[in-house]
Amino acid sequence: MAAVGLLSAVPGCGLLSGPKQAPHGAEGATVRLGVVPIIDVAPVYIAMRAGYFRDEGVDVRIRTVQGGAAGIPAMVSGDLDVTFGNWVSFFTAQAKGTADLKLVADGYRGKPGMFLVLALPDGPVRSAKDLAGRKIAVNTRGNVTELAVRAAMRAQGVDVSAVQFTEMPFLDMQSALQRKDVDAALVVEPFLTSAIRQAGAVPVLDTMTGAATELPIGGYATTAKFAAGNPATLDAFRRALGKAQRDAADRHRVEEVIADYAKVDSSVAAQVHLGSYPTGIDANRLRNVVSIMRDNGMLDRDLDPSTMVL
C-alpha cells in the first residue's frame, strides 16, 4: 500500500492515474499521416525535425502513399487519420460521395517552372502541340497532375481527347522516359531536376501559367468522422504544421529535409524549383480549382470548398 501511494504521488507517473493527457487537450495524441515523398510535404519533415508535433503533444506516424487518390480510401477504411493529397482528388471524392472529407490545412501552391511536362530530346515530343495523342505519365489518374496537363494543353490549343494518361510513381518516371515506355511525363520536384540533369529531359509544357499560376496543388484532409471525434488533436496538428509551413519560406530548411526523405543528392536539392507553402486555406483559390475541374470535364457538378474547411 505504501508503494502504491508513492507511485500515485510521483508527478507524471501514469501507472495508476489513467491515460496521460496530451497538451492542449488533444484526444488521441497520435495521427497516422499519409504523405507522398515529394517536395510538397517538406513542412511535415521540418516539423518532425524541429519537434513541433511533439511540442503540441501529437505523435505523427508517417506512411507513404502514391497520391491523394490512394490516401482517401485508406482514411475511409481507418488505416490513416489524415493524408496529404491534391485538391482535385479530394473534391472528386466529395462530389461522388465516396468520402465525407474535411480540409485541415493548405499545403502547397504552384509557381511557374515547378510542375512541368518533360520529354526526351530524341523522342517524338518536342513541344506542347506534339502531346496530342501521346502517352503521358501522371502519378495517379483524375488528380491535379492530369488536370494540370489537360488545362495547359487546352490553353495552348492542343487536342487532349486522344491523350493516353498512364499511372506510375514520380520516382519511376525518369526511367520510363528513358525506356520509351511513355512519350512524356508530368514530373514534380525533386524528381524534375533529377530528370533534367541525369537524363537530359527537356520541358515541353509549363502547366503553372496563365489561369493556373499560383494554383493550389495539395493540402491535408481528414474524414468528417475523425474530425468530429478529434477536434483538439487536429488543432494541435494544424498548429505544428503551420509553424513548419512558415519555416519553409526559408529555402535552406526545405533543402535540408528533402535531401533526406526524398533521397536526393544535396546538389539536386539546391537547384529544385519551389512553389509556395501557405499558412492558411484560401477558399477563393480552391473555388478556382473547382472551376478549372469543371471546365476540363473532371467534375460534373458544382462544389463549394468552403463547406469542407475544418
From TrEMBL:
<dbReference type="InterPro" id="IPR015168">
    <property type="entry name" value="SsuA/THI5"/>
</dbReference>
<dbReference type="Pfam" id="PF09084">
    <property type="entry name" value="NMT1"/>
</dbReference>
<feature type="domain" description="SsuA/THI5-like">
    <location>
        <begin position="40"/>
        <end position="249"/>
    </location>
</feature>
<comment type="similarity">
    <text>Belongs to the bacterial solute-binding protein SsuA/TauA family.</text>
</comment>
<dbReference type="GO" id="GO:0042597">
    <property type="term" value="C:periplasmic space"/>
</dbReference>
<protein>
    <submittedName>
        <fullName>NitT/TauT family transport system substrate-binding protein</fullName>
    </submittedName>
</protein>
<keyword id="KW-0732">Signal</keyword>
